[in-house]
Amino acid sequence: MEGRTTVLPTSVKFMTGPLLHAFAKPSKTDFISIVRGKGSLLWDANGRQYIDAIGSLWYCQVGHGRTEIAEAVAAQISTLETYSTFDPFTNQKADELAAKLQSISALPKSRVFLCGSGSEAVDTAMKLARVAQGQAGHPERTIIISRMRGYHGTNYGGTSAQGLPLNKQGFGQLLPEVVQVDSDNLEDLAKFMSDNSKKIAAVIVEPLQGAGGVWPPPPGYLEGARKLCDQHGAFLIFDEVISGFGRMGTWFAADHYGVTPDMLCFAKGVTSGYQPLGGVYVGAAVREALESDPNFFLRHGYTYSGHSSVCAAALANLAIIEREGLVERAKHVGARLSKGLGALATDGTIDHVRGDGAVWAAGLKPDQNSVTIRDRMIELGVIARAINTDTVAFCPPLVVTDEELDTMIDTFANAAMGK
Q1: pLDDT of residue 9
Q2: I need a labelling partner for 102 at 20 to 30 A (CA). Which of 35, 167, 277, 360 fits?
Q3: CB 39 within 8 A of CB 405
Q4: Which mean pLDDT values do the consecutive 10-residue runs of the chain (419 residues) have?
Q5: Using CA atoms, how far apart are residues 248 and 357, in angstroms rounded to an integer?
């Protein structure tokens, strides 16, 4: 507005850098610059070496520095960086990747929608659930249910579905008709679904809750959610952004827990972070609704849905996972983490341990602080993830060595004991 003047507090002295960091204090000025990686090892700009105990952000299945993926991306970019997959076009790499993903799918007769991130995948699944219910003759089915502690990305749909209240603060009105129920009490879900049976579009769950603190599902919870969705005509959506692509010792947590959803969101491990990619497996029930009317036009998609160079990275990454047996390797990684952390719980160093597959967390005692422990671990050369103040999480690359795993545990133990 003409004549408008903004007066800043005299205490504001813009000493921060040009990059506004994600999930950080905007006033923060000191960051560790990671410049190189190889396998499970990282180096910062000062030449210090670290073991990556969290796979950067839960995603680096094949480890860092895989030139095979870089070469695949470079070859595709030098041929054709990408071309839109909006009607009437497609591109070869998107088609190849969809076929490959279909071949390892946990959902029979599924198709694959591609996007750029886990957040986009979650928003896509939520939109598809509602539009598919409408196409099936149930436009009144618009409610989407999620669990407390669930993390479903940070777009408006996923933020609305989050069960982490702090992540919702300050962003204004979120999506209506997106509700949370208790994380572990199946009766809470059953009661809400019974009270709103004709209005529910879908239930979205992380099979293993990750960013909320690494919480495996209570026995019978996923099976019960599947039965409730069938009973009430709702779709079941699995958010496997963290748990997919070998992390659970199977291709997907749906395989690990033996429960088949109607849609499955993925990202992270599909490229091991070498390029940004997300997507949704669209199962038979949702497909049938979307495909039933030949004149129906799906008005949803992203500029980079099926980006050729990104798909090339995914294909190379999946080839490495298969060739090096990393799905099976995840079982060994998880067992060693579980044993090491379990020993610390048994001797009283920490309160307890929880996890599954190759995703584990240390539950801390009241006098311990996860951020303090994480920072000390970084000083000692290991990068883990602090969650809230009471949890330290581990999700290393699946190529991690036994020696590196043992060093992670020893370093964590020393940090937890204040050494």
Answers
A1: 57
A2: 360
A3: no
A4: 53 80 94 97 98 97 98 98 98 98 96 98 98 98 98 97 96 97 98 98 98 97 98 98 98 98 98 98 98 98 98 98 98 98 98 98 98 98 97 98 98 97
A5: 4
Pairing of strands 278-282, 352-356: unpaired
Alpha-carbon gap, residue 34 to 207, rounded angstroms: 31
* Residue 275, Ramachandran bin (φ over 0: left; ψ between -120 and 50: alpha; else beta): beta
Question: How many helices and strands (H and E) does the chain possess?
Answer: 13, 15
Q: Where are the beta strands (DSSP E) in 259-334?
A: 263-266, 278-282
Rounded to 5°, the CA angle 347-350-355 comes to: 105
φ, ψ for residue 33, nearest 5 deg: -90, 110
What pLDDT does residue 258 have? 98
Cα–Cα dist 12/372, whole Å: 28
Q: CB of 204 within 8 A of CB of 263?
A: no
Instruction: Decide: 204 and 149 in contact? Cβ < 8 Å.
Output: no
Angle at 50 between CA 71 and CA 405, to 5 degrees: 95
DSSP 64: B
The CATH code that applies to domain 68-323 is 3.40.640.10
Q: How far apart are CA 116 and CA 279, in angstroms?
A: 7
Closest CA to 166 of 389, 401, 407: 389
* Predicted local confidence at residue 332, as pLDDT: 98
Task: Enumerate the domain spans of the chain.
Answer: 34-65+326-416, 68-323
Among residues 48, 66, 69, which one has the least CA distance to residue 383?
48
The burial of 250, by beta-carbon neighbours within 10 Å (0-12 exposed, 13-18 middle, 19 or more buried), is given as buried
d(CA 129, CA 175): 14
What's the CATH code, domain 34-65+326-416?
A: 3.90.1150.10
From residue 407, alpha-carbon distances to 158, 228, 414 in Å are 36, 44, 11
